[in-house]
Design a protein that fits this description.
This protein folds into two domains: 206 residues, Spore Coat Polysaccharide Biosynthesis Protein SpsA, Chain A (Alpha-Beta Complex), CATH 3.90.550.10; 91 residues, no CATH class. With 316 residues, the protein is an alpha/beta fold. 31% of the residues lie in helices and 25% in strands. It is globular and about 60 Å long. It contains nine helices and 15 strands. The strands form four sheets. Strands 1, 2, 3, 4, 5, 6, 8, 9 and 12 form a nine-stranded mixed sheet that branches. A two-stranded antiparallel ribbon has the order 7-13. The two termini are 37 Å apart.
Length: 316
């Protein structure tokens, strides 16, 4: 299935060959040839170990910023490090500003290539779409140029067996060469965006190399994430200077309404999902398969159409 890039992405891609000519006047990085992963982690205890294991044979180092999770993500990371075949730099960071945390991770990288990875990404470890093939592709590119690469990933919705009908795949500029002018800045809704210099050559990599667990997470986790985003974007955050105080406020006033709102929102999107197609997107990564054997979350059907999720019925 061919991914349709956004109008903005296609415009940058169209202009890229012209603007890229300026790279001849830009000093090259003296960093060693290799791949640094920058990974921001908050409450990804379920996925983080498989995610990090999928990078074996691909990464040279991983900069992991553990953003003071409320689960045992940090302990899970420490536990899996001896099984990882790349260097790991693990830091805890309290800041809730996404751009600050991302720039911190970026500053700690040491290789010529940087790949922004999430703690609920699982990469292919074998086959034509395997991360090792992507590594070979990346490192074979002329080191005299600068690049930003848009890889493809599958986004699951609701469970690990469904994707959104209108947007089953996703693509961002996750992979890029290092340059001192690279910087993350805050956009709307506290989302951080990487500012890439204009002379970078853009490559659309049309292979699905990773899978995103997305909203295949517990209702409690989804409520937490929604309220976390709501708190970050609250212009009167001084009323609740910590997220814990905001949680106490929300749940002491409208706990039932908060749950009902998230369920309603997710159910509306669930009705727009379709079953994941191996024929279209290929098989699941090997490291995801244990999660498929006894799934705790499953979209349920009504009149042969996606309707709700199995854990919602007792929550309304």
């Amino acid at each position: 299935m061919k991914y349709k890039y956004t109008l903005k992405q296609n415009l940058f891609y169209f202009l890229s060959p012209i603007l890229n000519l300026f790279h001849f006047f830009i000093p090259k990085s003296s960093r060693p040839h290799g791949i640094s992963m920058m990974i921001r982690v908050k409450n990804e205890a379920e996925w983080i170990q498989a995610s990090l294991l999928s990078l074996n044979g691909f990464a040279d180092e991983a900069i992991i910023i553990e953003n003071y999770s409320d689960d045992d993500s940090y302990e899970k990371i420490k536990e899996i490090i001896p099984k990882l075949k790349y260097k790991v730099i693990l830091r805890k960071e309290k800041s809730t500003e996404f751009d600050y945390v991302s720039n911190l991770a970026l500053s700690l990288t040491s290789y010529s290539w940087i790949f922004r990875w999430d703690g609920d990404f699982i990469g292919h470890t074998s086959g034509d779409n395997g991360l090792k093939n992507l590594r070979n592709y990346i490192l074979a590119l002329p080191s005299t140029n600068f690049y930003v690469i848009y890889p493809l990933l599958v986004n699951f919705y609701g469970d690990l067996f469904h994707v959104m009908k209108d947007k089953p795949l996703h693509s961002e500029g996750y992979i890029h060469s290092y340059h001192k002018r690279l910087e993350y800045f805050k956009k709307h809704n506290s989302i951080e965006v990487l500012k890439v210099p204009f002379f970078f050559k853009i490559i659309n990599y049309q292979k699905i190399v990773m899978f995103h667990a997305g909203t295949a997470k517990t209702l409690q986790r989804m409520i937490y994430r929604s309220l976390w985003s709501e708190w970050l974007n609250n212009i009167k955050r001084y009323d609740h200077p910590t997220f814990k105080s905001y949680l106490s406020y929300k749940f002491s006033n409208n706990k039932d309404l908060s749950r009902k709102y998230i369920i309603d929102e997710m159910e509306e999107k669930i009705k727009k999902t379709v079953k994941y197609s191996v024929e279209k997107f290929g098989d699941y990564p090997e490291l995801m398969k244990p999660f498929l054997e006894k799934p705790t979350l499953k979209i349920i059907y009504k009149d042969v159409k996606p309707w709700s999720r199995n854990d919602f019925k007792n929550e309304i």
